[in-house]
Description:
Residues 2-109 form the Beta-lactamase hydrolase-like protein phosphatase-like domain. This is Sulfide:quinone oxidoreductase. Its cofactor is FAD. Pfam families: BLH_phosphatase. It comes from Marinobacterium halophilum. The chain is an alpha/beta fold. The chain has 3 domains: 4-140, Protein-Tyrosine Phosphatase, Chain A (Alpha-Beta Complex), CATH 3.90.190.10; 154-259 and 414-578, FAD/NAD(P)-binding domain, CATH 3.50.50.60; 263-411, FAD/NAD(P)-binding domain. It is built from 17 helices and 28 strands. Strands 6, 7, 10, 11, 12, 13 and 24 form a 7-stranded mixed beta sheet that branches. A 5-stranded mixed beta sheet has the order 1-2-5-3-4, with helices on both faces. Helix 3 packs across helix 4, helix 7 crosses helix 15 and helix 11 packs parallel to helix 12. The longest helix is centred in the last third of the chain and has 19 residues, at 460-478. The radius of gyration is 25 Å and the shape is globular. Mean pLDDT is 91; it is low at 142-151 and 562-579.
Amino acid sequence: xxxxxxxxxxxxxxxxxxxxxxxxxxxxxxxxxxxxxxxxxxxxxxxxxxxxxxxxxxxxxxxxxxxxxxxxxxxxxxxxxxxxxxxxxxxxxxxxxxxxxxxxxxxxxxxxxxxxxxxxxxxxxxxxxxxxxxxxxxxxxxxxxxxxxxxxxxxxxxxxxxxxxxxxxxxxxxxxxxxxxxxxxxxxxxxxxxxxxxxxxxxxxxxxxxxxxxxxxxxxxxxxxxxxxxxxxxxxxxxxxxxxxxxxxxxxxxxxxxxxxxxxxxxxxxxxxxxxxxxxxxxxxxxxxxxxxxxxxxxxxxxxxxxxxxxxxxxxxxxxxxxxxxxxxxxxxxxxxxxxxxxxxxxxxxxxxxxxxxxxxxxxxxxxxxxxxxxxxxxxxxxxxxxxxxxxxxxxxxxxxxxxxxxxxxxxxxxxxxxxxxxxxxxxxxxxxxxxxxxxxxxxxxxxxxxxxxxxxxxxxxxxxxxxxxxxxxxxxxxxxxxxxxxxxxxxxxxxxxxxxxxxxxxxxxxxxxxxxxxxxxxxxxxxxxxxxxxxxxxxxxxxxxxxxxxxxxxxxxxxxxxxxxxxxxxxxxxxxxx
Length: 579
């Protein structure tokens, strides 16, 4: 629990869980204020559990959600009224604590010195200097329009939204090429996760602690880090609005926020995750439970699901299944288990060249393949999963399947601040040129990673190839020149078919095979022990020590030889006029 005291009466915190409430009560807090809307992000705990915990410990609960980046006069007035009614001490929380601090600052501006407010919030770890103009107006007049955005905005040459794999990789590639480049990253999280490792956590190979580092340890010292969430985009003004209302300007914007795991799209799923035999390697906290279930499930039915595309790493749901089956086979339990793979797709894998090797393992483990089966509801208490099934005639029906273990791949979508923004295509993803990774309508905006609409596999390996392309093209745009680097759609999916062997699927746009190694060393369409060594030993090291440092081993961008004629060269500002 990360509590920041502003006054003896009022403290703020990043997102808390139900388990934190007992500690809050022991520290003397009497009331909890939640300033974060429900379902704002994929990793957000259930508010119902937090509220119930507060009531159990005798703390009053107050839900006053504030939309990130849009703190209005109504929000501040309601907060001020609530604070006047409460008996403290009070603990308020949101995603990072920034919204709570901003609400407090704005509500106090009419009777506290503005500089004292800013020093207080800064001492607590929240830099609200961008709110100075609004605070001064409030101090001068109680009738000020506090919802008016400030006209001042800090400005950077390159502003990056997202400090995950994509954001860090492109930063490393940019700094390698121009170490003195003015770069800022907007990222609210305090931890950085190596998500490709969660499959091996669920398979009993890695400890989950091997897959996480603090964001501060990962963030390059040469960049400015805004530990806040982006709320909206003003591309016509070359600005991004943060959750506290602060605006940041840019010459070039790179958008790499990742995607959202939509657990709530399946009724009953969130309520039973981590219990009743329901798990998912798509979450850091649940991957160890997968391994626990594999070792405790000795008979009955095990279901593994795959959601409709697009999803992170289309092979991940199968990886969990093959590693589980391998362990069950080794322990002698597989003969007493019925294993089913329920996928929304009509094929086992999207690139046909890898299917024969996978089918050998499907047969070896006795797995039943259920194509065009989409999970639509889970009843954890009764251990039943409901699927929408499309038959060969196109007819749709619903079927219920009992289970003893259920591994879920959740539906996935772009974050709302992307899908509801001017940057999105009709499906809600960032609209990008699939080769240059430049926005299709805004020439001063680039994107990479899972939130883009490029038709490649959404994997860390794809990011590793995209980052140098984006870095080259961003530096071109800063010079007023057209993009010259191209991305071929490369993605890699190391399919862990058994402990010690992997089918190393590497492919690009259109399913074209793009192997990194000669066939005499690694035959990508066949299971390989060398590929397992690559996955277990080399790729984590490459991720932390080369990908983020701009060392582009086997990832150098393809540079076009074409030199644009003078009339083809455009500045970043010109691009906006041409969209």
